[in-house]
Amino acid sequence: MPGGQERALRRRIRSVRATQKITRAMELIATSQIARAQARLSVAAPYQKGLAEVLAEAAKDVGTHAGHLLGVPEDPRRVLVLHLVADRGLCGGYNANVLRTVERLVRSNGDRGVETRLVAVGRKGPAYLRFRGVQVDEAFTGFSDRPTFADAREVAAAVVRPFLDGEVDQVLVVSTRFLSAGTQVVEQRQLLPLPEPAGDGGEHERGAAAAPAGEAAGPPRREGYVEFEPAARDLLADLVPRYAEAAIFGALLEAAASEHTARQRAMAAATDNAEELAKNLSRVMNRARQDAITTEIMEIVGGAEALRRDVETP
Amino acid sequence: MAFTATVVTPERILAETEVGAVHLRTADGEAAFLPGHTPLIGSVVPGLVRLEQVDGAELRLVVHGGFVHVEHESVQLLAPVAELADEIDVARAQHAAEAAEARIAELRGAEAGDRELAEAEAALRRARDRLAVAGA
Known about the structure:
heterodimer, A: 5-stranded mixed beta sheet, 6 helices, 12% strand, elongated, B: 9 strands, 32% helix, 40% strand
């Protein structure tokens, strides 16, 4: 009978240790992937920034004649929501945080009579949403942890076409922003119509402030004068798919970096937890073994004692 | 005057160099940008782009669409996909062109969706652009 409990505990400890090895390996992999993802993020930044500048210039030139391509629609009746999550779990609340936001958005749209179309990136999205009775119209899977620009183009095509065909009034993106290695937040933002360039404050204000000084002394800077080939309005139409691609690529890369960070954190916690568990279990096991030994000794001593008494009494 | 050309794609910065002139095609036709050009934003027609470097060498590349943003002292080329002429894999492009042609023929026969046909045609155009730039 003794040793039974001990053997069971020994088996549990072995299993916890084995799990710990896996979680530690996953943690290390995630750590190396974070660095990779961050590097790709910074490589992609100049392209996106360049397009944002082009967009800002074109939008300035077009002014209010941009039609539905620019600005925030006042009363969107049909909205397409693109959301980015992971293909795999084991990354803490990463997927759930995004999907909860999506679900809330869909429900509140439903209450207001706004029609919502869903496009998903990542296997976990459809799995979560279908279970809750939310229909996903299109899903892209297999690249959430390592998105390429070609992937981004495919996704972009799926959301830009309905917008340009007039099937939806607005395209929103719900995804995790990678603000820094320590901070990632779920954010919902408008992809289409294109954002108005009011947001890029810095450079414009500096330009505006420099203009009067430039007029006072030296040759006049041709501030704000830009030629367009083709005309800015047509250029804007060309810009819609390109900008959407770049923005989606950026969002995918940020999501991937966030995914790896979340996984690294979750796996580090799991590894620590396994360590703690194994430690407690071995304490219990040592105790059980000690008890078994004590019992055995007691039995032997008891037996010997009984025998001696048998010898002495007569 | 310093005049810098930068070719930027989402996956890397393809080229960044001092140039004397940049030749490409915009929506309005052939264009050459020299230092001090009026600020211009144009959409780039897929095909050959030539960067005349200050040392006289010419950098040739193929772009598959995108935009050019010219400022007084710089030209920025923003292309979703672009390759240096030296890096083009001719055999692969040849192969891609043949595959695209076969696909177009197949789709035409099958009355398939416009989207697939457009995709195949775009693939063919890209492959031909690559071959044209690499072959010259």
